[in-house]
């Protein structure tokens, strides 16, 4: 596993800051030790430095991955977050959207969130800001991008999109056929 280049580190941190803002530093300097990002085959892994030191004792061609996959770089060098990063980013999220129970299933099927399915939204959420989507019982369901600001959501039509779908926990089930 190799270190990310400066360019790719910048792209990764810009993407993470869309969702967690300045809390990116807390992802790296955690109470249980230091963490870092490493790359292998265009995939970015989030791993503790302790585990990374242990992994360095194994020949590189025998390692498939170490840590948690946060996402991957596309061929056009853009970073795409995977849903596996959800549990690490959710505690640090600055903008959140809560869905009504009737809208959860639609979001988990990969659809955008309409105003009629919106339960709550964080104050001061800006348009096109990254948001973490929660159920009303505070279970993180996935990632999205706010289609409207908090103020615009209050006056929006019930069928207007308020959050664009990015990734959700239902992807595992939808991708099951591809994995078999």
Blueprint (SSEs and pairs):
Elements: E1 2-3, H1 6-20, H2 24-28, E2 29-30, E3 33-40, E4 43-48, H3 49-55, E5 68-73, E6 79-81, H4 86-89, E7 96-99, H5 101-108, E8 113-114, E9 118-121, E10 130-135, E11 140-146, H6 150-154, E12 161-168, H7 171-174, H8 176-179
Count of distinct structural domains: 2
Determine the strand fraction and express it as a percent band: 25-35%
Distance between the terminal alpha carbons, to the nearest Å?
Answer: 27 Å
Share of helical residues: 25-40%
Unreliable segments (pLDDT under 50, ≥5 consecutive)? none
Reported for the largest beta sheet, the result is: 6 strands, antiparallel
Report the mean per-residue pLDDT as an integer: 88
**Topology, number of strands:** 12
Give the topology string: H per helix, E per strand.
EHHEEEHEEHEHEEEEHEHH
User: Would you tell me the structural class of the helices and strands?
Assistant: alpha+beta
Radius of gyration: 18 Å
CATH architecture classification name of the largest domain: Roll
Could you tell me the CATH topology label of the largest domain: Nuclear Transport Factor 2, Chain: A
CATH class of the largest domain: Alpha Beta
């Amino acid at each position: 596993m190799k270190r990310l280049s400066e360019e790719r580190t910048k792209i990764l941190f810009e993407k993470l800051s869309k969702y967690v803002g300045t809390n990116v530093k807390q992802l790296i300097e955690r109470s249980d030790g230091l963490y870092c990002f490493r790359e292998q085959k265009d995939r970015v892994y989030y791993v503790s430095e302790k585990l990374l030191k242990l992994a360095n004792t194994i020949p590189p061609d025998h390692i498939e991955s170490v840590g948690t996959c946060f996402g991957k770089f596309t061929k056009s060098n853009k970073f795409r977050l995977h849903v596996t990063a959800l549990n690490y980013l959710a505690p640090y999220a600055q903008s959140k959207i809560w869905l009504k129970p009737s809208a959860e299933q639609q979001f988990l099927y990969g659809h955008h969130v309409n105003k009629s399915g919106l339960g709550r939204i964080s104050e001061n959420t800006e348009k096109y800001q990254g948001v973490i989507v929660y159920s009303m019982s505070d279970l993180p369901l996935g990632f999205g991008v706010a289609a409207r600001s908090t103020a615009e959501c209050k006056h929006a039509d019930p069928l207007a999109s308020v959050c664009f779908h990015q990734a959700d926990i239902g992807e595992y089930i939808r991708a099951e056929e591809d994995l078999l």
